[in-house]
Specification:
Layout lengths: L1 H20 L6 H12 L4 H20 L4 H23 L18 H26 L3 H19 L1
């Protein structure tokens, strides 16, 4: 019973955090996927959504490494998130141009910085995986699109 509650709680936290990470820095689709994997052990509705989310996360990862400008942009974005995480951890004094009280400078403390660094590492690992699996391999991308179309047809019927 405790295991079930724990897995369900972690699953819901991952799904909610993943939804937030779709607009905030972080691996949103991966977190939603992980949360649904946990929830799928208890709920049939979650099990039906695991594969479509997995395929869309893979598509997003594949698109991020399709061209050199996209790969460079994705890498720079991940590194920028990491740099901001380091800034949060180091927590320098508020600069002179900061218009609010110093206590409002870099809210969240080292915990925020640690989660940003974790997001950076996950993003870089995802980029490395995607590069090895998809970059310069149009057949792999076409196969992924075929899988997505099949999953969509199965979901409709």
């Amino acid at each position: 019973m405790l295991r079930r509650l724990l897995l369900e709680g972690v699953g819901w936290v991952l799904v909610v955090a993943g939804i937030a990470a779709l607009v905030l820095p972080g691996p949103g689709l991966l977190m939603i996927f992980a949360g649904l994997v946990l929830l799928s052990q208890q709920y049939e509705w979650a099990e039906r959504r695991v594969d479509p989310i997995r395929l869309r996360a893979l598509r997003s990862a594949a698109e991020g490494v399709q061209t050199w400008p996209r790969l460079a942009g994705s890498t720079l974005a991940a590194l920028a998130i990491g740099a901001v995480g380091v800034l949060w951890i180091v927590r320098p004094d508020a600069p002179g141009w900061w218009p609010l009280r110093d206590s409002w400078w870099l809210l969240g403390g080292w915990e925020t910085g640690a989660t940003l660094l974790l997001s950076c590492l996950i993003a870089l690992a995802t980029l490395a995986y995607s590069y090895r699996r998809f970059h310069g391999k149009p057949a792999a991308f076409v196969e992924l699109e075929r899988e997505i179309e099949e999953a969509d047809r199965a979901d409709e019927g």
